[in-house]
Specification:
By secondary structure, the protein is mostly helical. 60% of the residues lie in helices and 3% in strands. It has 14 helices and 4 strands.
Length: 307
């Protein structure tokens, strides 16, 4: 198995712990900057469901694809590896860098070369799954996530990724099963993410009481997990519970002040509760954080309405 380095770990530098990172982010012997910045150990941005993105006759449509960023692990090269495994690690790192650069075709090429050198590594299989996912080859992505699960002795991060893929494929019942397996695995460090994922699946199935229960469970496990608050706000907004929605979105932006959707949705909810000063402030912050985004375009229109 590969030696695992987590996001932004200083252990990735060629000189060992505490040494400076290499300047060339695509050098196969280093955990380069682009690759390190790409590795995700958390869900950082889940767009709200288009069903509830409404207000003043406008509709913001966002893809479900962005709901989850897969928990892709980053490997560090060690001098004790055999030449084939060194080749596998080199191609794996280049594949991670290509994903960071939004180049799934190049990533797929590198991960296939890595697999040719070491077909029994779970992280390489997960990388292949991610590349296929980005190219919308969902059956192939599913196959490789399942292979990663098998090779990792039921690794919960791969279960989580498979569940996220099922959300994208709108296979909500399958997503619930896999998220639950990840959430109940004692080796999964962030079960609140999986419980929130279950809530999202139930929300998409229009089972709102079940969605709320699972969001609340996630919030109870980690009260500082912004996405649990955000999803509760989305749910409350869709049920015309604006006071509760406003509280959830306010907590979201308190925990994640750079979350564009949090500010945007707080603005929409503030309009519903007729708190115009808060609505203006929230829309202005949306524009400041992401001036070229669709949320900012809509926020500008709402600001005109509020004048």
């Amino acid at each position: 198995m590969l030696t695992i380095c987590w996001r932004r770990s200083r252990n990735c530098a060629p000189g060992g712990p505490g040494s400076a990172p290499a300047r060339n982010p695509r050098h196969p012997r280093n955990c380069g900057a682009a690759a390190r910045n790409y590795v995700k150990t958390s869900v950082e941005f889940w767009p709200p469901s288009s069903r509830v993105l409404q207000g003043a006759g406008m509709l913001l449509r966002l893809s479900l694809t962005g709901f989850f960023l897969p928990l892709l692990l980053l490997a560090c090269t060690t001098t004790s590896s055999s030449p084939p495994r060194q080749d596998a690690k080199a191609h794996y790192l280049l594949g991670v860098s290509a994903l960071a650069e939004n180049n799934p075709t190049k990533a797929l090429q590198e991960f296939l070369l890595a697999e040719k050198a070491d077909s029994g590594d779970a992280d390489i299989q997960a990388g292949l799954a991610q590349a296929y996912w980005q190219k919308q080859a969902y059956p192939l992505a599913e196959r490789h996530f399942k292979r990663a699960i098998s090779l990792s002795d039921d690794g919960p991060q791969h279960r989580y990724n498979l569940a996220a893929l099922y959300l994208t494929m709108e296979r909500y019942d399958d997503a619930i099963v896999e998220f639950r397996k990840a959430a109940e695995n004692l080796f999964f460090a962030t079960p609140e993410r999986a419980w929130t994922g279950i809530g999202v699946a139930y929300f998409k199935k229009h089972d709102y009481p079940a969605a709320e229960r699972h969001y609340l469970k996630a919030r109870e496990l980690n009260p500082r997990y912004a996405q649990a608050h955000f999803r509760l706000g989305e749910l409350y907004y869709s049920q015309d519970r604006p006071v509760e929605a406003a509280e959830a979105f306010a907590r979201t932006v308190e925990l994640a002040p750079r979350m564009v959707d949090g500010h945007y949705w707080l603005g929409l909810t503030a309009m519903k509760t007729r708190d115009n000063p808060l609505a203006r402030k929230s829309f202005e912050e949306t524009i400041r954080l992401a001036p070229d985004s669709e949320q900012a375009r809509l926020a500008r229109n709402y600001l005109k309405i509020l004048q």
